[in-house]
Specification:
Elements (H helix, E strand, L loop, with lengths): L1 H20 L5 H4 L10 H40 L4 E11 L15 E13 L4 E15 L5 E7 L2 E12 L2 E11 L9 H16 L12 E14 L2 E14 L8 E2 L2 E5 L2 E16 L3 E15 L2 E5 L9 E12 L3 E11 L1 H5 L3 E10 L1
Antiparallel strand pairs: 1-2, 1-16, 2-3, 3-4, 3-5, 5-6, 6-7, 7-8, 8-11, 9-10, 10-13, 11-12, 12-14, 14-15, 15-16
């Protein structure tokens, strides 16, 4: 009996060991076999390098996308800076003497003038704009007897078109052309009309010869020009040049000779104005900015030319002018204040300068 019990126990123990040694079904799927290749240092280095390169590529791609998105945002900001419809009012208070066609005359009458100008523009498309402006000047002019008298004169109506080519989200090339309606009041051969001619000349001088197409009497103005504008966030840079032709449509100039030379009324006058400026918005709320504009004017052919005698000094044809400005924007209204002053030249000789108040209203 004891022998049988021992035999049973031995059989049970042997069967348990056999079952433990038998592999379980599906065991290979849960416990993959380890190989020597998985511990290869070279393979690990290649894997880390590939992972690093992939990470750098992803970061570069994300940075490029962010930069493109920022460019689109900045471009949208630039586009919003231009109003589709805008009207303006401008008052230019002029000081000094009416510039003479011939040699500078310190005895020429002093004049205080105020030029009121209205105008506006309408964008037919993001590239094409139509605009117009019209000045009217009133003044108090000193006569030869020392008495001041009031006079008023209408300027020429200017119609203008502008086409803009975009070079980048921040840079545009504007090209413009204008044609004036020759309604500027004044003449050369009567006393009353000559006072209006002189007043328009004062308004032209107070503006620093920047907008001669508006003040030429008995002239049909034709304007051609172009420029460049750069605007990004708070900074705005611009430069432009324009050529102004004044075609004679009437009027006569009294013939005569003075000791210094003779006068001649030209059939076509010609002027070039090249300008440049910078503006910077130094406060966001309220939107306050400062600006400095400058321009160089070259009067190649005056409406009335002075042919000097031997030894006589002729008026200079080149004029340099500066205008510092400050302004703000309150919603759709943008007022500004500037002072126009010449550097040497004919305008400095006549002590001409102007205080300019400007206001834009957008819709």
């Amino acid at each position: 009996m004891r022998t049988s019990l021992r035999l049973v126990i031995i059989l049970v123990v042997f069967s348990g060991h056999a079952l433990a040694a038998k592999p379980k079904k599906g065991g290979n799927a849960k416990h993959p076999v380890q190989t020597m290749d998985s511990n290869d240092p070279a393979e690990k280095e290649v894997s880390v390098k590939a992972e690093t390169e992939a990470k750098v590529e992803v970061e570069q791609s994300e940075a490029k996308v962010a930069e493109e998105q920022q460019l689109h945002v900045d471009a949208a900001e630039v586009a919003k800076a231009r109003d589709k419809v805008s009207v303006f009012g401008n008052v230019l208070i002029g000081f000094g003497r009416a510039p003479e066609s011939g040699p500078a005359n310190p005895e020429s009458p002093k004049t205080t003038s105020a030029t009121f100008m209205v105008g506006g523009h309408y964008d037919l498309s993001p590239q094409l704009t139509l605009g117009a402006r019209l000045p009217w000047t009133v003044g108090s002019m000193q006569q030869n007897n020392g008495v001041y008298s009031s006079v008023q004169a209408l300027g020429a109506l200017e119609l203008r078109g502008e086409y803009r080519v975009r070079l980048s989200p921040f840079t545009r090339l504007p090209f413009f052309a204008g044609l004036g309606v020759p309604i500027a009041q004044g003449n050369y051969d009567t006393t009353s009309s000559f006072r209006q001619t002189r007043l328009n000349a004062v308004a032209d001088a107070a503006s620093g010869y920047r907008d001669g197409e508006l003040f030429g009497v008995k002239r049909l103005p034709v304007i051609l020009g172009g420029g460049i504008d750069y605007e990004r966030k708070a900074l705005h840079l611009h430069a432009a040049t324009k050529f102004v032709f004044g075609v004679k449509v009437g009027g006569n100039f009294p013939t005569g000779t003075i000791p210094e030379g003779t006068y001649e009324l030209k059939s076509v006058s010609f002027r070039n104005v090249t300008s440049a400026g910078v503006a910077y918005q130094f406060l966001a709320k309220p939107a306050l900015f400062g600006a400095l504009d400058s321009w160089v004017t070259y009067n190649a052919i005056h409406a009335v030319e002075f042919n000097s005698a031997a030894g006589a000094t002729t008026p200079t044809r080149l004029q340099v002018v500066f205008e510092p400005r400050v302004g703000a924007r309150f919603g759709k209204i943008s007022p500004s204040l500037g002072y126009i002053f010449p550097i040497g030249g004919r305008l400095a000789d006549s002590s001409s300068s102007g205080l300019e108040l400007h206001c834009d209203v957008a819709f």
